[in-house]
Design a protein that fits this description.
By secondary structure, the chain is α+β, with helices and mostly antiparallel strands. It has helices at 5-8, 14-20, 24-33, 76-87, 97-102, 104-117, and strands at residues 44-49, 52-58, 63-68, 91-96. Strands 1-2-3-4 form a four-stranded mixed sheet, with helices on both faces.
Length: 123
């Protein structure tokens, strides 16, 4: 696995710091997907992939979930990040903070649909 950019720069504690300082939306989503609560899929928080620290990553399903605030609207950096992650074979789903906070059931339905459309390679 490729380490995150912050790990490469000598800060292996960065993912831990990000977990401790999670946004409200990240916390809400994490509480609903952790411990294999959704279709027995394991997610990791603030997981390094291809030089980036992703919000949530399911290595087994090659799926990354990013939870974005308004600062990400039409972000060229995010487009480049998504393209690099996709080039590495990951699918990237992005949800707005408001969607997670105001419609968590809808977000979970989209995740379930994604898993149904892209079953585990082991199944």
């Amino acid at each position: 696995m490729v380490q995150s950019a912050s790990v490469k720069r000598g800060n292996p504690k960065r993912p831990r710091q990000l977990r401790r300082n999670a946004t409200d939306a990240e916390t809400v989503l994490w509480n609903r997907i952790r411990n294999r609560q959704i279709q027995d899929v394991k997610f990791r928080r603030q997981w390094p992939v291809e030089g980036y620290i992703t919000d949530f990553c399911c290595v087994e399903r090659m799926l990354i979930i990013e939870v974005d605030g308004g600062q990400h609207d039409e972000s060229k950096r995010d487009e480049l990040r998504t393209a690099k992650l996709q080039h590495a074979g990951y699918r990237v789903l992005r949800f707005w903070n408001n969607d997670v906070l105001e419609n968590i059931e809808g977000v979970l339905e989209k995740l379930s649909a994604e898993f149904a459309a892209n079953p585990s390679p082991a199944s």
